[in-house]
């Protein structure tokens, strides 16, 4: 009576093939995990760029709003496009409160030391008191630019985290001219 099953040689061949496949998978897995980490980092960087552009877009769209009689420039681009100064009637009282006012209607965004900063109550790009809106532990801002063409403002950001770099840009139509 003959019994079914594998011979010793067949089992050894199967084990050898399994070991080769596991070794190949073991070498491939770290590369796969590394590539996955890079993709996640790039996605987070792109998401951060989009969120920053949305905040800037909102400020540009608001610029010039006045529920009364306001005078002066509503939008100023300075420092070769690396600083954006804006004014809008935030409390709808019919005037733009000056930079020294506690409820100032003057707002600014600037690039300084590879970080994007913002401040309320500013009429120029220099000075102190600006707050970072980006996290230097996660990324640097390689470029920030604003350019006005008629009623449109072109905003662009280039962010870098590790070896990953993304550039995002947007055209914004000013609504309160």
TrEMBL record:
The chain crosses the membrane at residues 12-33. Its main location: membrane. Keywords: Membrane, Methylation, Transmembrane, Transmembrane helix. The keyword S-adenosyl-L-methionine does not apply. It holds the Pfam family N_methyl. It is a single-pass membrane protein. InterPro entries: N_methyl_site, Pilin-like, Prepilin_Pept-dep_B_prd, T2SS_protein_J. It comes from the Bacteria. It is found in: Membrane. NCBIfam families: IV_pilin_GFxxxE, PRK10557.1. This is Prepilin peptidase-dependent protein. It comes from Candidatus Pantoea multigeneris.
């Amino acid at each position: 009576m003959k019994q079914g099953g594998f011979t010793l040689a067949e089992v050894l061949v199967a084990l050898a093939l399994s070991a080769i496949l596991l070794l190949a998978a073991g070498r491939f897995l770290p590369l796969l995990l590394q590539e996955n980490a890079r993709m996640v980092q790039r996605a987070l960087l792109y998401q951060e760029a989009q969120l920053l552009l949305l905040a800037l877009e909102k400020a540009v769209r608001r610029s010039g709003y006045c529920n009364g009689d306001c005078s002066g420039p509503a939008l100023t681009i300075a420092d070769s496009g690396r600083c954006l100064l804006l004014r809008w009637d935030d409390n709808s009282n019919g005037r733009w409160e000056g930079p020294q006012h506690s409820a100032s209607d003057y707002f600014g965004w600037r690039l300084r030391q590879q970080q994007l900063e913002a401040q309320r109550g500013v009429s120029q790009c220099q000075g102190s008191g600006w707050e970072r809106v980006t996290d230097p532990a996660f990324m640097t801002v390689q470029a920030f630019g604003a350019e006005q063409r008629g009623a449109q403002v072109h905003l662009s950001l280039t962010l870098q985290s590790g070896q990953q770099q993304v550039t995002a840009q947007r055209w914004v139509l000013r609504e309160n001219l």
